[in-house]
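TASK: fixed-backbone design
INPUT:
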């Protein structure tokens, strides 16, 4: 989707995503010592806000001014500080080796563009830092629920691992994520990849 489409979508509802953070973020970050974090394609900021509540200094980047304004309002309501950056993640370069944690949640792009975005994200990792990538798995199209319906922007754990050369892979797998529907809970299928820059 283009910037204008995201702005329109964020304008249409109070919050498109829930206020609660992504469950896989909570699981994967639980044991990390708070430091500097980068949330790429942060949307309305739910994950950035959760990190800030736990003591992280968070930079949150998105190209939707409407999404960022919601994040700004929520941060103000919770008395939290976020550094919000309005920029396209395909054009914005993180400061090199500056972050202890970089998260890329549900950023769905064609493979060559995704690889470029993830390599840029990895360039922001300090030694010992963690990169977490979560998104709709390629099998979700036929076996899960929700998410993009274009197979060209879906990915597998192996795809993401292939994008992250030079990092140590800590976790790379598919995982079920329960989604509430009118017919009860149905599982969406996500890819989760956690990687670390050792030096």
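OUTPUT:
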């Amino acid at each position: 989707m283009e910037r204008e489409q995201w702005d329109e979508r964020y304008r249409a509802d109070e919050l498109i995503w829930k206020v609660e953070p992504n469950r896989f973020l909570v699981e994967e970050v639980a044991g990390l010592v708070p430091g500097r974090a980068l949330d790429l394609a942060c949307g309305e900021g739910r994950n950035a806000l959760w990190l800030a509540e736990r003591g992280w200094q968070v930079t949150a980047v998105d190209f939707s001014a409407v999404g960022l304004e919601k994040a700004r309002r929520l941060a103000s309501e919770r008395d939290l500080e976020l550094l919000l950056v309005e920029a396209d993640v395909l054009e914005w370069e993180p400061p090199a080796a500056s972050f202890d944690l970089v998260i890329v949640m549900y950023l769905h792009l064609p493979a060559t563009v995704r690889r470029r975005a993830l390599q840029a994200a990895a360039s922001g990792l300090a030694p010992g830092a963690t990169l977490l990538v979560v998104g709709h798995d390629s099998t979700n199209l036929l076996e899960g629920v929700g998410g993009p319906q274009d197979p060209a922007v879906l990915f597998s754990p192996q795809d993401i691992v292939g994008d992250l050369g030079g990092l140590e892979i800590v976790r790379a797998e598919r995982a079920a994520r329960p989604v509430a529907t009118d017919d009860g809970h149905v599982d969406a299928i996500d890819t989760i990849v956690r990687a670390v820059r050792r030096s």
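COMMENT: The beta strands are 36-40, 57-62, 82-86, 99-105, 125-136, 168-181, 184-196.
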